[in-house]
Amino acid sequence: MTTGIDMKVDLSQLAHGMGIAMAMEEALAKQSMYTDLATEYAIKKANKEFNLEAAAFASAGGNIKHMFEWGTNGINTGRSNVRPAPTSERARLWKLKIDGYGMSKTIDFDYKPSVGNVPLPTVRDTGISAEVIAKMRHHVFWNKAFVMETDEVVHIAPNEAQFLLIPAYPNNRPYLRPHDVKRGYGLLPRGTSIIARPGASSKGQFSAFFGKWWNGRGAELINQYMTEQVDEDFVQPPTMTSSVSTTPYLEMLKRYIEQTTAEAQIKAEARIKEIDRIQ
Amino acid sequence: MPAHVLRLYTWEVLKLNGLIDLIDGLNPIIAYADEPKVSDAGKPYVIYGFAEDYSEGFIQYQRGVMSFNIHGGTFNEVVEIGKAIAEMYDGQDASAEQVNLFSAQNDLLHDIRFGSVTCTYFDGGVPGDQAGGAVTSIVNIEYRYFKENKLQLLGNGGLWQA
């Protein structure tokens, strides 16, 4: 989890022109229920883009694969009992978190538990015989994403079994006896434990990508989607002419916004329902 | 597949500009699974991946995101390649036109036409995990494309007549 990214919607790109855009932003700021819904929709829509970009980056070998479920197509290719598509909700081990009300919000993510079986070691990767692999039990590493992203230290010890089997992956081999390396595994007897840092090389990688994306492209998309909604929901704001001075014009605009907000709010709610259904 | 067309186009442009070269006779823009074939050559290479979204729009007009994960020995090397890819795809429909002109020269690539290609993310020069290890740079592009369906369907004249 990052420390949260603060987002403040900027409506200066409204199609109604600079002066009107600023006045509308001011008038809309008072309609906090509408702006809250519209901002939430804009963030959720931008999040769809983020999910797509994260999946593409992970499939290009980006160091954020730990945030995807085991067995995710093209990302974590080891065999598991699940095989989610990279852009599906089931593949992602994080969930977007939106805090705040109105046009200022904080974006962050929560970790989701992994539910897929950890892929068993393979003969090719470890040298363990197929007979031994066939006898191995499956287990679920439910807090995989959290441990890998935060570089949490893990204590491994036999709990119920007499021994735990430690596969001789290339990075484990320096710590195993030659005989263990030859047969492909070492044994950890009850009463002993090892300390591991499975997230040593992935620490903070997803948080960095998340922060950079939302501060750049994400912020740009949120403003764009928000502006599109306001342009669509408030179609005919009173125009500013030379015969109307600024103060009465602002009053007219505020009245227009107040009168049309209820209808706009219904549209905004419908949009959120629709995007939640798709996601 | 659109990502394959973009991969070929990117390779041709980077090669033309002298930024990357064949590695043991292989195109150095590769899928993740092929990384061991090029990673020890001491030359820059690019791992590509992509994801497509079919949740909205017309089935004939789809979109996706392609990611280029650039690996090299020096910061300069990867940033130059990253900047070139970002520049190649900063023109939206103009970039798509360039890709279409390229793919039109190859009969096998005829059935995909791009509507727009845009660079959406560029992160230059991230140091590797180990001291002295590779430096990486990331460029993501969003593409929109039309696909002509060439598959012959059974229709009314086929086995599945109503």
What does this structure look like?
The complex is a heterodimer of chains A (279) and B (162). With 279 residues, chain A is α+β, with helices and mostly antiparallel strands. Helix content of chain A is 45%, strand content 12%. Chain A contains 8 helices and 7 strands; from the N terminus they run βααββαααββαββαα. In chain A, strand 2 and strand 3 form a beta hairpin. Chain A starts with a strand and ends with a helix. Chain B is elongated, with a radius of gyration of 18 Å. Chain B has helices at residues 2-16, 35-38, 75-88, 93-103, and strands at 29-30, 45-53, 61-72, 112-126, 135-147. Helices cover 27% and strands 31% of the residues of chain B. Chain B has one domain: STM4215-like, CATH 3.30.2000.
Write the layout of secondary structure elements.
The complex is a heterodimer of chains A (279) and B (162).
Chain A: E1 5-8, H1 18-29, H2 32-59, E2 94-99, E3 104-111, H3 123-126, H4 130-135, H5 144-150, E4 154-156, E5 163-167, H6 178-183, E6 185-189, E7 194-196, H7 205-233, H8 246-278
Antiparallel strand pairs in A: 1-3, 2-3, 4-7, 5-6
Helix pairs in contact in A: 1-8, 2-7, 2-8
Chain B: H1 2-16, E1 29-30, H2 35-38, E2 45-53, E3 61-72, H3 75-88, H4 93-103, E4 112-126, E5 135-147
Parallel strand pairs in B: 1-2
Antiparallel strand pairs in B: 2-3, 3-5, 4-5
Short description:
The complex is a heterodimer of chains A (279) and B (162). Chain A is of the alpha+beta class.
Biggest beta sheet summary of chain A: 3 strands, antiparallel
Residue share in helices of chain A? 40-55%
Helix content of chain B: 25-40%
Mean pLDDT of chain A: 88
Strand content of chain B: 25-35%
Q: Which strand order spans the largest sheet of chain A, edge to edge or round the barrel?
A: 1-3-2
> Main sheet of chain B: which strands, in order across?
1-2-3-5-4
Gyration radius of chain B, in Å: 18 Å
Number of helices of chain A: 8
Number of strands of chain A: 7
Shape of chain B: elongated
Structural class estimated from helices and strands of chain A: alpha+beta
Strand proportion of chain A, as a percent range, falls in 5-15%
Distance between the termini of chain B: 33 Å
Greatest interface (CB-CB under 8 A), with counts per chain: A-B, 23 and 25 residues
Number of DSSP strands of chain B? 5
H/I helix tally of chain B? 4
Corresponding CATH architecture of chain B: 2-Layer Sandwich
Helix-strand sequence of chain A: EHHEEHHHEEHEEHH
**Whole-number mean pLDDT of chain B:** 85
